[in-house]
Amino acid sequence: MWPSRKDSLEYGQAGAARKLRETLKVIGATEGEWEASLNVSLSVKVTEFIQKLPKWFLISLGFGIVAFVGLINHLNGPELSSWIFYLVPIFLMTWFTATWAGVIVSIASAFTWVIADFTSGADAFHSAVLYWNGVARLCSFLIFTFILSSIRSLLERERALSRIDFLTGIGNRRYFIELADMEINRARRYRHPFTIVFIDLDNFKAVNDRYGHRAGDKLLRLIADTIQSKIRITDAVARLGGDEFAILLPETGSELAQAIAGKLQKLSMEVMHQQRWPVTFSMGAMTFTTPPLTIDEMLQVSDRLMYVAKSKGKNRIEYEVFEGEGCSLPTTA
């Protein structure tokens, strides 16, 4: 039974998003640093700044705003409308902390407004009117909270899906480039090496032609699952497109990179033999002891190394060390 489009989307989002959170946590990066690698607008930068603030500070700020607006209500009476100002702390709590925090601030805002009406001497035909207004305001605040929470969830889902390869459920090219760019910045800061492994599936077209595209899709998923399950928690794998994959190995020198690449090739070949598919793997493992100047430079030298492996007869691994001014002589396996 092949998975439906909906199931595949949910699988991909959960898997890649979980892998992203684990990778960021282990290498010590934050999602703010992740987004900082993009060309973002001023509003996004403001959002990132607020996200970096401690949760306790945001909660304190939210309740402080509620108290301040309630004081204004008390001093000016019902003639001066201030309902929109209560939405500010509700927005801060719901969007930047959690839905439950937005609910609590909504209740506090409605309660504060009722107290301000009573203490300011607001005229009403009956005191029940003030209570009714309080209930109506609470309902409107809660509706605003839950709508805002739903919008936030949808945006987070869309952002996660934009970095996921639909077919395999692992990261896509955008995911890989953004994570690699962040690793380049970390390598400049801490002077740690890292390795990029480019993988191209030899004879993949023959599988599609002989067994059909469904079999080809199954092959790609098997390779993605095999690599994903065998790499370290600090590593990340992505499908760049077609039958090409890339693996990011943070803080990994040449010797360890050779061991990892060799192991992955062996495991992948075992999967191919079990399925009786005539597919082999051409791989290029580029270790950067000096960070490249740009992402484009990193992609070019790593991609070139993989094509060197293909040009030498396929089903082999080329290793090389990037040292800034030039690359060391490659080794093969």
Structure description:
The chain is an alpha+beta fold and 333 residues long. The protein folds into 2 domains: 53-160, no CATH class; 169-332, Alpha-Beta Plaits (2-Layer Sandwich), CATH 3.30.70. Helices cover 65% and strands 11% of the residues. The chain has helices spanning 5-27, 31-36, 42-52, 55-76, 83-96, 99-119, 127-161, 173-190, 204-211, 213-230, 254-275, 295-311, and strands at 194-202, 236-241, 244-249, 280-288, 317-322, 331-332. The chain has a 6-stranded mixed β-sheet with strand order 2-3-1-4-5-6, sandwiched between helices. Strand 2 (236-241) and strand 3 (244-249) form a beta hairpin. Helix 4 (55-76) packs parallel to helix 6, helix 9 (204-211) crosses helix 10 and helix 10 packs antiparallel against helix 11 (254-275). It is elongated and about 90 Å long. The two termini are 39 Å apart. The model is unreliable at 1-13, 24-34 and 36-40 (pLDDT under 50).
Keywords:
333 residues, alpha+beta, Alpha-Beta Plaits, 12 helices, 6 strands, elongated
In short:
By secondary structure, the chain is an alpha+beta fold. It is built from 12 helices and 6 strands.
The Rg value, from CA coordinates, equals 27 Å
Ends: how far apart?
39 Å
CATH class category name of the largest domain: Alpha Beta
Could you tell me the strand content as a percent range? Answer: 5-15%
The CATH superfamily of the largest domain is identified as: Reverse transcriptase/Diguanylate cyclase domain
